[in-house]
């Protein structure tokens, strides 16, 4: 580039800058008297402070639609930022540095920058878990999320399980019990409260604790926290079993009718809800002429074929007894 072209380009930039300055000055001055313009947010107008001329009106109010009279009320009503969640030990309020060693444009970082980012990640993790209680909570909530994903449980169940575990931690129920045991018990109780129960065998299959420890810890947690957990309804297992076996809606409806008849006849008392649900699905499949074996049902429900045969006969007897009435 020659000296002449450089001077020409510089002059053009100066002229553009002067024009921009003049336009901004014109916008800040009254077109009638040259006075200073002020914005009246209450009336959504821009007026002259000298002569009172309304230069603009009907301006858009870009502020919130609510009012707050103190800082606490403002924080409570504000909807800015990511929502807090009980599924993270810090409720999602801390900064998380991504693991990708790339900049904002997607380009890879240099070796020195990668080392710097790794040090920042290390210190960030240390600051996020400042004491043993937070480290405990982080491990437990991670375990709850892992098991819930393996069991296909929805987010509301994970949120409730996280709240139950936090309560157990605050009530000092963990001494003498493993973190995994209390976390698994919290998830089991949450699933039953939400009406999407999983059997003890299913829970223990994805947990790091055995079935006996899970049962013992679960009873202790619900007793100490005063949780109201209703007995599992066999009908709540039916949709999942029918879906896993790829059966029809008619079979699901028939299974519900069989279980309802059994409830009226008192067959449910003292019986495993999973066994009753599996037997109901198997019986309904036979009544609707759908091909399914006891072995297939037992694999889906994680119970023995003997249990299915025994409960299956009881359901059919209860259905025959209730039919004349």
Describe the structure.
Residues 1-31, 73-99 are annotated as: Disordered. GO terms for molecular function: DNA-binding transcription factor activity; TBP-class protein binding; translation initiation factor activity; zinc ion binding. Sequence repeats lie at residues 142-225, 236-317. There is one protein chain. This protein has helices at residues 3-28, 71-77, 111-128, 132-151, 155-170, 179-193, 200-206, 211-225, 238-245, 249-264, 273-287, 294-301, 305-322, and strands at 37-40, 45-48, 54-57. The chain is mainly alpha-helical. Among the domains are: 30-60, no CATH class; 132-225, Cyclin-like (Cyclin A, domain 1), CATH 1.10.472.10; 234-322, Cyclin-like (Cyclin A, domain 1, Orthogonal Bundle), CATH 1.10.472. It has a 3-stranded antiparallel β-sheet with strand order 1-2-3, with no helix packed on it. A hairpin with a 5-residue loop joins β2 (45-48) and β3. The longest helix is centred in the first third of the chain and has 26 residues, at 3-28. The protein is elongated.
């Amino acid at each position: 580039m020659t000296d002449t072209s450089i001077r020409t380009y510089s002059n053009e930039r100066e002229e553009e800058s002067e024009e921009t300055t003049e336009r901004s000055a014109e916008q800040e001055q009254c077109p009638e008297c040259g006075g200073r313009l002020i914005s009246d947010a209450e009336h959504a107008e821009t007026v002259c402070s000298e002569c009172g001329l309304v230069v603009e009106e009907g301006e858009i109010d870009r502020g919130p639609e609510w009012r707050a009279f103190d800082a606490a009320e403002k924080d409570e009503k504000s909807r800015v930022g990511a929502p807090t969640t009980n599924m993270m030990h810090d409720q999602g309020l801390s900064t998380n540095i991504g693991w990708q060693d790339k900049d904002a444009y997607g380009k890879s970082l240099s070796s020195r920058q990668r080392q710097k980012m790794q040090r920042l990640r290390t210190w960030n993790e240390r600051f996020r878990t400042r004491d043993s209680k937070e480290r405990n909570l982080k491990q437990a909530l991670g375990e709850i999320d892992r098991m819930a994903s393996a069991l296909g449980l929805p987010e509301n169940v994970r949120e409730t399980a996280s709240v139950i575990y936090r309560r157990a931690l605050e009530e000092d129920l963990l001494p003498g019990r493993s973190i995994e045991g209390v976390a698994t018990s919290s998830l089991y109780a949450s699933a039953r409260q939400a009406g999407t129960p999983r059997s003890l065998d299913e829970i223990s299959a994805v947990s790091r604790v055995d079935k006996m420890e899970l049962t013992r810890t679960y009873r202790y947690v619900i007793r100490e926290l005063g949780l109201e957990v209703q007995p599992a309804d066999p009908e709540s297992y039916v949709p999942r079993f029918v879906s896993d076996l790829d059966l029809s809606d008619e079979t699901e409806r028939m299974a519900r009718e069989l279980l309802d008849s059994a409830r009226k006849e008192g067959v449910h008392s003292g019986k495993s809800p999973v066994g009753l649900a599996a037997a109901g699905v198997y019986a309904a499949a036979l009544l609707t002429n759908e091909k399914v074996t006891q072995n297939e049902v037992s694999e889906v429900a994680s119970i023995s074929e003997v249990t299915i045969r025994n409960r299956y006969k009881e359901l059919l007897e209860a259905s025959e007894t209730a039919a004349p009435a």
